[in-house]
Design goal:
The chain has 440 residues and is an alpha/beta fold. Helix content is 45%, strand content 14%. It has 3 domains: 197 residues, NAD(P)-binding Rossmann-like Domain (Rossmann fold); 83 residues, N-(1-d-carboxylethyl)-l-norvaline Dehydrogenase, domain 2 (Orthogonal Bundle); 143 residues, NAD(P)-binding Rossmann-like Domain (Rossmann fold, 3-Layer(aba) Sandwich). The strands form 2 sheets. Strands 3-2-1-4-5-6-7-8 form an 8-stranded mixed β-sheet, with helices on both faces. Strands 11-10-9-12-13-14-15 form a 7-stranded mixed β-sheet. Helix 17 links the parallel strand 12 and strand 13.
Length: 440
């Protein structure tokens, strides 16, 4: 099948490359010539493990090409995927679907034969019907269908998520569109991955409901962690104990400094706004948004307590800046709240992150970027472990403590054992959901 994918951001690029690996003929379209030039050279504008190899293989096989020319890209295409951004709209928190509707209009003007226009972008309920209206208005004679096919890709594990999905959601209005979508995903259907056919509105809502539920689960364990610190309980033991319950499950029960990234913050805000517009306030989701911001601010107080209530004159080593490991994404990262507070309090901040520097330099002005954890810790007064990259999971704690001016650690991912940290020479250790410990 020939398929066009509009947008070479995270969702569009991963989807296009993976569809090509299924054996389809994929043309990815983007208006940014710089990105097109990079991709044609085999360079990836984002960091996602395994994506570069998959891109090189399918480009070499002739199944994957890139262009700015949308009419040429969609000529003869049986499906066109819209995978452009839907950022949070300023002022009201809603998802901005203007890029989606603009893409739909361009498709309408360029298409001549039957095509299924598939929205891959995360969009509010009702958007796909607006897409259909835009296309009909721009080209009344075009034979087309619309489909909603939300993505469920975790940054850092997107290739595996695409190739081995929990489910594929397909919202359609006609059997003809359903047949096209079934043909696109046939390799996964043959491997018994479930394809759930539903209506447009339900498909749109599934995406928001899924992300809001996961964000709620993360926020729940973070609130429990705060209570554990006051009561003497250990949140890791609590999470383990409730995670064995099949009705709860053990995923997304890792306490930390609050969720970030491109999905949870944006999608919870959008769902809350959808609820307000329809007179059904999403009270749980609204609370999740509020509590998540409180949790990030609470981390600053935790660090301040370790530093005798003042960051002034202190040197702080921050390990990790991206919102999670195995990505270069800084969007809504806890670092964007915590690091400015350190700087504002008078601290000198050194940051190290395997892939976060490219974005982080612009987002975190005033910090010094260093190569590794040991360079960051040299002469520092506080070590803050902020992102759980693998290279931060087995550090030489004795070496770190010995190189610091004041060996204090804030482990905001609960990677290390308090006993191990204190035995290595740290004077105090703070984590999430466990009482702060000091050397005797």
């Amino acid at each position: 099948m020939k398929i066009a994918v509009i947008g070479t951001g995270y969702v569009g690029l991963v989807s296009g490359v993976c569809f090509a690996d299924f054996g389809h003929d994929i043309v990815c379209v983007d208006k940014d010539q710089r990105k097109i030039d990079m991709l044609e050279r085999g360079d990836i504008p984002i960091f996602e493990p395994g994506l570069d190899e998959l891109l090189a293989r399918n480009t070499a096989a002739g199944r994957l090409t890139f262009t700015r020319d949308l009419p040429t890209a969609i000529a003869g295409a049986e499906a066109v995927f819209i995978a452009v951004g839907t950022p949070t709209r300023r002022g009201d928190g809603h998802a901005d679907v203007s890029y989606v509707l603009a893409a739909a209009q361009e498709i309408a003007r360029a298409a001549t034969d039957y095509v299924v226009v598939v929205t891959k972008s995360t969009v509010p309920v009702g958007t796909n019907r607006k897409v259909a209206e835009v296309i009909k208005a721009a080209n009344p004679n075009l034979d087309f269908d619309v489909a909603s096919n939300p993505e469920f890709l975790r940054e850092g594990a997107a290739i595996d998520d695409f190739m081995r999905p929990d489910r594929i959601i397909v919202g359609v209005q006609t059997d003809r569109a359903a047949a096209v979508m079934a043909a696109i995903y046939r390799p996964l259907f043959l491997r018994d991955f479930p394809i759930v056919r539903t209506d447009l509105e339900s498909a749109e809502m599934i995406k928001y409901a899924a992300n809001a539920f996961l964000a709620t689960k993360v926020t729940f364990i973070n609130e429990i962690a705060s209570l554990c610190e006051r009561t003497g309980a250990d949140v890791k033991e609590v999470a383990k104990g409730i995670g064995y319950d099949g009705r709860i499950g053990n995923k997304f029960l890792h306490a930390g400094p609050g969720f970030g990234g491109s999905c949870f913050p944006k999608d919870t805000k959008a769902l809350a706004r959808i609820g307000q517009e329809h007179g059904v306030p999403m009270r749980i989701v609204e609370t999740v948004i509020e509590v998540n911001e409180q949790i990030k601010r609470r981390m600053i107080e935790k660090l301040r307590d370790l530093c005798d209530d003042s960051f002034a004159g202190k040197t702080v080593a921050v390990l990790g800046a991206t919102f999670k490991p195995n990505t270069d994404d800084m969007r809504e990262s806890p670092a964007l709240t915590i690091v400015p507070a350190l700087l504002g309090g008078g601290a000198t901040v050194r940051v190290t992150d395997p892939h976060g520097k490219a974005e982080g330099e612009a987002l975190l002005p005033g910090v010094t970027w260093v190569a590794n954890a040991y360079d960051a810790a040299e002469g520092a007064d506080l070590l803050v472990l902020l992102t759980a990259w693998n290279e931060f999971r087995a550090l030489d704690l004795t070496r770190l403590a010995g190189s610091m001016r004041t060996p204090l650690m804030a482990d905001l991912r609960n990677i290390y054992s308090p006993d191990d940290v204190l035995k290595a020479g740290f004077k105090a250790y703070a984590s999430i959901g466990r009482a702060q410990r000091s050397a005797s």
